[in-house]
Specification:
heterodimer; A: 67 residues; mainly beta; Ubiquitin-like (UB roll); 5-stranded mixed sheet; globular; B: 203 residues; alpha/beta
Chain lengths: 67, 203
């Protein structure tokens, strides 16, 4: 399947992945990330049960401590 | 321009956290003439905060929200500053900021940043939230920027994390606080429309 991740087209082997699986595959290791799929925010507690499929637009933004 | 500045007087902006980002952002918005600022923080002013936060030596030991209200009054007494001396969780965010058009995320910890972004996006989908992410250290002027994703704006370099080797310093913290304040002005003065449905990066 192909997804759009942070404005880049990414090809992946498989039909669908949970948000958690995608983060692991992409080595997004920061503990705090804003994830939006097709414009909808996915809460941290939903990472295991929300799935990403072919053609989805995924945005991942790291939240960095300091303020 | 005059009528747009006039619009600020009828505007309510919420600021979650009154440390480096929040205190500097609040002062910028107060000087610009925002009518109402709702500020929340549980902390007290400490001597080591003075390297970047908008407080003074004689305010050490005071509650940050009260010290900030006092400082704003010395600059622009027309601003209605509503203070909340509280540790914010989702319920407090909803209760305290429900009348604000724009909410500024000015926390220190990344988990708190995520908490308020999730809460505002879920409970107030029509409100804008402006977060700060990545401001530690010095230099790299042009890495500091603003990106919009739906009703969420992210100000900062999105990479530099605070650590003992890379402390937050006044110039970069001040730049990000000013980016947040500037973005809030644009939202209010230009009546930016909230996003709906599919959103894409707007850089």
């Amino acid at each position: 399947m192909k997804i759009n991740l942070n404005n880049n087209e990414v090809s992946m082997a498989g039909e669908s992945f949970s948000v958690r699986e995608l983060l692991n595959l992409m080595h997004f290791s920061f503990p705090m990330i804003v994830i939006k799929i097709n414009g909808r925010l996915v809460k941290k507690e939903e990472y295991e049960r929300v799935f990403i499929g072919d053609g989805d637009n995924v945005e991942a933004i790291h939240l960095i401590s300091g303020g | 321009m005059k009528s747009k500045l006039e619009k600020l007087k009828g505007t309510c902006i919420g600021i979650a956290g009154c440390g480096g980002l929040g205190s500097n952002c609040a002062m910028a918005l107060a000087r610009a003439g925002v009518g109402t600022l709702v500020v929340a923080d549980f902390d007290t002013v400490a001597l080591e905060n003075l390297d970047r936060q908008y407080y003074f030596r004689e305010q050490v030991g005071q509650k940050k929200v009260l010290a900030l209200k006092e400082n704003i009054a010395r600059v622009n007494p027309a601003v209605d500053v509503q203070v909340h001396d509280v540790r914010l969780g989702p319920d407090e965010v909803v209760q305290i900021f429900k009348n604000c058009q724009v909410i500024i995320e000015a926390f220190d910890r990344a988990d708190m940043k995520l908490m308020i972004i999730e809460t505002v996006t879920e409970r107030f989908p029509e409100k804008f939230i402006i977060a700060g992410s990545g401001l530690a250290g010095y230099g790299e002027n042009n890495a500091l920027r603003t990106r919009r994703l739906g009703n969420l704006f992210i100000c900062g370099d999105e990479t530099s994390e605070v650590s003992p080797e890379l402390p937050p310093l006044a110039p970069r913290v001040g730049v990000v606080a000013a980016l947040q304040a500037n973005q809030a002005l644009e939202i209010v003065m230009d009546d930016l429309a909230p996003a709906s449905g599919d959103d894409v990066w707007d850089e």
